[in-house]
Amino acid sequence: MIDIQYFLILSAVLFSIGVIGVLVRRNAIVIFMCIELMLNSVNLSLITFSSFFSNYYGQIFVFFIMTVAAAEAAVGLAIIISIYRNKESINVDEINILKW
Amino acid sequence: MLSSQDVKYLYPFILLIVLSVVTLFLDLFTKQNKKIVSGFSMLTIAAVIASLFYILINDPEIARTQEILHSYLRINRYTIAFSVLSMLGIFITFLASKNYLKKQDINFGEFYYIILFSAAGMLTMLYANDLLVIFIGLELMSVSFYILAGLMRRRLKSNESALKYFLLGAFITGFILLGISLMYGTGLTKGIENPLNLTAIKSNPNFLFNPYFLVGFALFLIGFFFKIGLFPFQMWIPDVYDGAPTVVSGMMSTSGKIAAAGTLAPIIIIMHPSDLTLMFSVIAVLTMVIGNVVALVQNNLKRLLAYSSIASAGYLLVGITSMNIHTLDAVTFYLLAYTFMQLGSFLIVSHFEGKTADGKDFSNIDIGYYKGLAKRSPVFTVIFTIYLFSLAGIPPLAGFWGKYYLFYAAIKANLIWLSVVAILMSVVSVYYYLRIIVYMWFMDSKTEIPEEKNYLKGNMLFFAANVVCVLGTLVFGFYPQLLFEMFKLIQKII
Amino acid sequence: MDLSLISILFVILAVISIFSALMLITRKNPVTSALYLILNFFTVSGIYLLLKAQFIAIIQVMVYMGAIMVLFLFVIMLLNLRDEKNLTESFSFKKLTSVLLSITFFVLIGTTFYFGFSNINPSRQGVEEKTVEIGKATFLGEKLFTEFAMPVLIAGILLLVAIIGAVVLAKKKFDPVSPDKE
Asked: What is the ipTM of this complex?
C-alpha cells in the first residue's frame, strides 16, 4: 500500500497549481476553473484522510463540497454571462477589477 | 432521532425555511403586486425574531450551551442574541427598500426571498457547532450575496462588483476548505472520532499546541477574516459595496458581518489561541489604520461607508483579541449599535441616490450633493447627523458604548497599547464623519436642487425604518444596560 | 514503495493529473483548458477508487464532469471568447511574484502534509474492510439522511438559491413592475 504522504503531496501540488492559475490567468472563466481545481484537490486530501483512518466524516464533507461547487458554478457562470452582456469581455484586466 | 427537546430550539429555522419557500410561491402567483411579497417577507422575519425571543424567555436551560441534533448545532443566549441582531438588520432593510428598488428598476420578488434564504444561511452559521455546518451556512449566505450584489444587471458596476465578490469569495472558500481538511487530518491522528465537531475540539486542549493543527486553523481564520473584511483581505469591500444596490450593501455590511463575527467570536473563545494574540493585534491595528486613513480622502459616500465598515471590523477584532469573559458581551453590544448606525447611514444614502438634476446618471452618492442638505431636507439631515455622531463615537449615543465596551474588554486583557491605538484611530475617524456633517449643515450648494417636500408621502415604511434605527441609537445610547437585560447576558462589564 | 499494481496505477494517475493541471493553467484557449480540467477530474476520480471511496468516485464523474464541466463548456461556447495572450507575451513582475508566492504556499502546505502525517501508520488489518464499507453508497446514504439530515436540507436550499440566482442574473429579458402599475 502507498503511504499517506504521496496522496497528500499530490493534493498540495494540485492546490498550488490552482492558486498559481487564479493569480496568473486573466480570463474569468479560466480563473473559475482553477478555483474548481483547488476545491477538487481539497476533496482529494479529505478522501485520503477518510480512507486511511476509516472515518466517514471526510467523505460526507466531500459530498457537501461537491454540492457547493455545483451551486457556485451555476451562480458564477450566470454572473459571467451578465457581465459579458454589458462589456463583451470577461478579461479581468479589461474590467479593471481584481487589483491584487 | 429528533426529540421534542431538539424541535423546540429549531422553531426559528423551521419557520424561516417554510415561510421563505411560501414567499417564493407567493411571488409566482402575485406577478404584478410586490406589496404582498414584501409584506409577507417582513412577516417571516418578524415571526423568526418572535420565535427566537420565545425560546429566550421560556427556556431557562439555554443559560448553559445546549447541544442539539447530534451536537451539530448548539444554542445559548449569545446564539440567540446574534441571530436576533442579524434578523433585525434584514427586517430594517426590507422596511426601507421598496422605493429604492423601484427607483433602480429591480423591484423583483427575488430580492426578498433570496435575502430570506441568506437569512437561513446566517441562522445556520450562528447555530453551528460543527465545521461542516458552518461551511454550508457560510456558503448559503455567500452565494445569496453574490446574486444580490449583481441584481442590477443592466449596470456594469453592479456586474463587476458581483464578479469581484464571487471570484474572491470562491478563491477564499478553497483556503477555508484546505484549513478544515488539515484540522480534520490532525484531529484524526489524535484519535478523535469526529474532529469536525467543535465540542470534540474543545475537549482536547492540547490541540492548539500542535503546529499542523494551527496551520489549518490559520487557513480557516483567513476565510472568516475575508468575510468580515479584515486586513489584508479588505480590498474587495469598497468595490463590492460601491457597485451593489445600496440597500444590499447596507444589509451585507450589517447582517452579513454579524453572522460572520457572531460565528467567529465564539469559536475563538472556545479555541482560545493565546499564541495568536500578537497576530490578531497587528491585524486589528492595520485594519483600523487602512479603514480610517483611506476613508479620509473618499468623496463617494458609499465607498466612505465601506471604509468605515472596514474600520469597524478592526474595532471588533480589538474586542475579539481580548478573549476573556467580557468579549462576547462587548461584541454583541457593538454589533447592535453598528446595525442601527451603519444600516441607517446606508439607508439615507439610498434615499438620495438617483438621477441628478442635470440628468447625469447616479452621481448623488457624491459628498458634493450633500452640501446644504439641511435646507432641502431637514428631517433626514437630522437623522443622518445622529447616525454619523454615533459612528464617530460621540458619548451619549450607542456607537460610543459599543467602542467603550470593546476597548474595555481589551484593557482587561492587558492589551493597553492596542486600546490606545484603537482610541487614536477612532479620533481620526471623527474627521471624516464631521466633514459630512459640516457639508450638510454649513455649506451651500451651488446648483439648484429642488426642496424636498412631503417626505412622508409614499415613504412611510422608509421613514419607519429610520425611526427604528434612530430610536435604537438613542435608547441604547442612554440606557446601554438594556441589551444585557434583554438577552439576560452575563453583564459583567462595570 | 513496492512495485505493486496499485503503486503503478497511482504513479500513472498522479503524473497525468499534475500534467493536466499544468496544461489547464497554460493553454490560451479556454475550451482546451476545460478539456484538460475534465481529464484532471477523471484521474482524481481514479485515485478515489484506489482509496476505496467508490461512491465519491462515481459522484465525481457524474457531478463534476457530467454537470459542472458541461456547464462550463456550454458557457464558453455561448460567449464566443477571444484567445488570451500567450503567458510569455504578457509576462510581468506581478505574475512572477504571484508564482513565487504560490510556491512558498506550496512549501508550507507540503511540509505540513509531509511531516504532520509522516509517522502515521494505522494498522491496515481490519481498517481496510471498514474503509471499503464506508465507501459504499448504502453506508453514506444512510448517514446522510439520518445523522446529516439538517445539512442536507440546507444544501438543498443552497441549490434552490443557485437556480433562482442563475435565472435572475442570466435571463435575457426582464419586466420590472413599472411604478404606475402598482
From this structure: 0.94
Domain count, chain A: 1
Q: What is the CA radius of gyration of chain B?
A: 22
**Residues of B with Cβ-Cβ distance to A60 under 8 angstroms:** 132
The answer as to whether A75 is a domain residue is yes
CB < 8 Å to B69, chain C: 150
Picking from B87, B91, B82, B90, the residue whose alpha carbon sits closest to that of residue B127 is B82
Query: C-alpha angle with apex C100: C94 to C104, nearest 5 degrees?
Result: 140
Closest CA to C108 of A46, A6, A37, A15: A15
Taking contacts as CB-CB distances below 8 angstroms, the residues of chain A near B180 are 61
CATH no., domain C1-82: 1.20.120.1200
Task: Return all residues near C180 (Cβ < 8 A) that are at least 6 apart.
Answer: none
The verdict on a CB contact (< 8 Å) between B153 and C112 is: no
Q: Which residue of B has its CA nearest to A80?
A: B163
Q: Are C131 and A51 inside 8 Å of each other by CB?
A: yes
- The distance of B475 to chain C (nearest Cα, Å) reads 36
CATH at residue A76: 1.10.287.3510
Q: Do C72 and A33 touch (CB under 8 A)?
A: yes
- Distance from the Cα of A54 to chain C's closest Cα (Å) equals 5
Q: What is the pLDDT along chain C (182 residues), one digit of tens a residue?
A: 456 888 889 999 999 999 999 999 888 888 899 999 999 999 999 999 988 889 999 999 998 888 899 999 988 888 877 666 555 556 677 778 888 888 888 888 888 777 877 766 655 556 677 878 888 888 889 988 888 888 999 999 999 999 999 998 887 665 544 443 33
Residues spanned by the domain of A9: 4-95
